[in-house]
Design a protein that fits this description.
Strand content: 5-15%
Shape: globular
Enzyme class: transferase
InterPro entries: Aminotransferase_I/II_large, Asp_trans, NHTrfase_class1_PyrdxlP-BS, PyrdxlP-dep_Trfase, PyrdxlP-dep_Trfase_major, PyrdxlP-dep_Trfase_small
Protein name: Aspartate aminotransferase
Number of strands: 13
Radius of gyration: 22 Å
Number of helices: 16
Cofactor: pyridoxal 5'-phosphate
Order of helices and strands: HEHHHEHEHEEEHEHEHHEEHHHHEHEEH
Bound molecules: pyridoxal-5'-phosphate
Distance between the termini: 56 Å
EC number: 2.6.1.1
Length: 410
C-alpha cells in the first residue's frame, strides 16, 4: 500500500524554476535572463522566417503526414545534419562517409543520453571529464547511466579567463582513453571558448593520450553567426583524431533553428579510419538502433521535417543563415549596450568580459547574493551562478537591467 511513501523529493530544476518565478512576478518591469532561449527585441519568442517558410512548404505538400519515422531517424534530416556539422567537402576529404554514424535524437539532451548510454554499455570503465563549470545537466546525464564523472579546470573567476595550463594538465593527467566532453562553441555557462591556437593544443594533447572526445554542439552559429566558424573545433578534432580514437558529436537544433520544444537533434559517431572500424560500422549503428527502439521507439518527426526542408532547399538554407546572423548580431548588440551602460553608470568593476564572451550567455561575475537582490529588488532574473542569457535583453530593458546591476554591485 505505502510503497512510495519514503521516496525523496527531487529538487525542482533551478533554471525552469526561475522561469516559473518570473511568470508569477506581477511587477510591471521585469526581465528574464534565465533560460537560454532567444527572444526578439520585444522580449518575445521568435519563430525564424526560415522555419515559417519551411512549414508552409511542408503543409502544401500533399504527401505530408504524421507516420512513424525509421528507428534511426529521418534520413534526409540526419544526412543534412551531418552536412551542417561537417559539410560535403570535409566529408569527402576525411573519407567520412563509410565511418560516420548519424542517428536522430530527442534534441541535444537526447543525443548526449544516446552517447552516454552507448559508452556505458561498450566502454563502461571510462571516466567522463566535464568542464568546470559546465551545463547543469551534463553530470546527471552521464551519471544517470552509471558512468563516473570528473572535471577539468576551465574558468578562472579571478581573471575571467580560461585556465588553459590547468586544462592541458588535466588532459595529460587523465588515464589514457578517458572521455573528454568539450563544448564545440559558445561554452555554457561561461561564454568563453578557447582560441583556435588553444584548440590545436587541446586536441593535440588529447591525441597523445588516445582520449575520446565528445563534442556537445548546442550553439552552432551562435558564437560567430557562421556555422562553419563554429564547427572549427569539431572539424579539427575529427581531422586530428582520424587514426586515433572515435569522436562523438551531440548536435542540437534547439537554439540555432529555434526548435526548442520540438526536440530536434542528432548524435554522430565518427569511427577511426581503419579497415576494422569501417567493417564494424553497421554493427555499431545497430546498437544505437537498439537503444532508441527500447527507449523511445522512434524519434519525434515534425521538427526534423522542418529542419530537413530548410536544409534541402537552397533558398530556405540561405534564409536560415540570415536568421542566425539576425540572432547572433542582436545578442552582440545587447552585450555592447549592457557593457556601455555599466561604464556610463560608473558601476564598480570592469565589464569588458560581457562583450568578449560569445554565444547566448554572459558569465557576469555577479555573486549569488547580488543575483538574489536583482530578483527581489528589481525583478531581474538570472541563474544563481551569475549566468545571464543576453538574449533576454532588448532595447526596452537593457538600461533598466544595467541600473539594477549597478545598484546591487555598489
Ligand atoms: N548542451 C548544452 C551545453 C546546452 O546548453 C543545452 C541546452 O541548454 C543542451 C546541450 C541541450 O539542449 P536541448 O536538449 O534543448 O537541445
Amino acid at each position: 500500500l505505502n510503497l512510495f511513501n519514503n521516496v525523496e523529493a527531487f529538487p525542482p530544476d533551478a533554471l525552469f524554476n526561475i522561469g516559473q518565478r518570473y511568470q508569477k512576478d506581477s511587477r510591471d518591469k521585469k526581465v528574464d535572463l534565465g533560460i537560454g532561449a532567444y527572444r526578439d527585441d520585444n522580449g518575445k519568442p521568435w519563430v525564424l522566417p526560415s522555419v515559417k517558410l519551411s512549414e508552409t512548404k511542408l503543409h502544401n505538400d500533399p504527401s505530408f503526414n504524421h507516420e512513424y519515422m525509421p528507428i534511426l531517424g529521418f534520413k534526409k534530416f540526419t544526412t543534412g545534419a551531418g552536412k551542417v556539422m561537417f559539410d560535403t567537402k570535409f566529408i569527402e576529404k576525411e573519407s567520412l562517409s563509410n565511418r560516420l554514424i548519424s542517428v536522430q535524437s530527442v534534441s541535444g539532451t537526447g543525443a548526449l543520453h544516446l552517447a552516454a548510454k552507448f559508452l556505458s554499455t561498450f566502454l563502461p570503465g571510462r571516466k567522463i571529464y566535464l568542464s568546470d563549470p559546465t551545463w547543469a545537466n551534463h553530470k546527471a546525464i552521464f551519471e544517470g547511466v552509471n558512468l563516473i564523472t570528473s572535471t577539468y579546470p576551465y574558468w578562472d573567476p579571478e581573471t575571467k579567463s580560461l585556465r588553459f595550463e590547468s586544462f592541458i594538465q588535466a588532459i595529460k593527467d587523465a588515464k589514457e582513453g578517458s572521455v573528454f566532453v568539450l563544448h564545440a562553441c559558445a561554452h555554457n555557462p561561461t561564454g568563453l571558448d578557447p582560441s583556435k591556437g588553444q584548440w590545436k593544443e587541446i586536441i593535440n594533447e588529447i591525441k597523445l593520450k588516445n582520449h575520446i572526445v565528445l563534442f556537445d554542439s548546442a550553439y552552432q552559429g551562435f558564437a560567430s553567426g557562421s556555422l562553419v566558424n563554429d564547427a572549427f573545433a569539431v572539424r579539427l578534432g575529427v581531422q586530428e583524431l582520424r587514426n586515433v580514437a572515435p569522436v562523438f558529436v551531440c548536435q542540437s537544433f534547439a537554439k540555432n533553428v529555434g526548435m526548442y520544444g520540438e526536440r530536434v537533434g542528432c548524435c554522430h559517431l565518427v569511427l577511426p579510419d581503419t579497415e576494422s572500424n569501417i567493417k564494424a560500422r553497421d554493427s555499431v549503428e545497430s546498437q544505437f538502433a537498439k537503444i532508441i527502439r527500447t527507449e523511445i521507439s522512434t524519434s519525434p518527426c515534425y521538427g526534423a521535417k522542418i529542419v530537413a526542408t530548410i536544409l534541402e532547399d537552397p533558398k530556405l538554407t540561405a534564409q536560415w543563415h540570415e536568421d542566425m546572423v539576425t540572432m547572433s548580431s542582436r545578442i552582440s548588440l545587447m552585450r555592447h549596450k549592457l557593457r556601455d551602460f555599466l561604464v556610463e553608470l560608473k558601476t564598480p568593476g570592469n565589464w569588458d568580459h560581457i562583450v568578449e564572451q560569445c554565444g547566448m550567455f554572459s558569465f557576469t561575475g555577479l555573486t549569488p547574493e547580488m543575483v538574489e537582490r536583482l530578483e527581489i529588488n528589481h525583478a531581474v532574473y538570472m541563474a544563481k551562478n551569475g549566468r545571464a542569457s543576453i538574449a533576454g535583453l532588448n532595447e526596452h530593458n537593457v538600461r533598466y537591467t544595467a541600473e539594477a546591476i549597478d545598484e546591487v554591485v555598489r
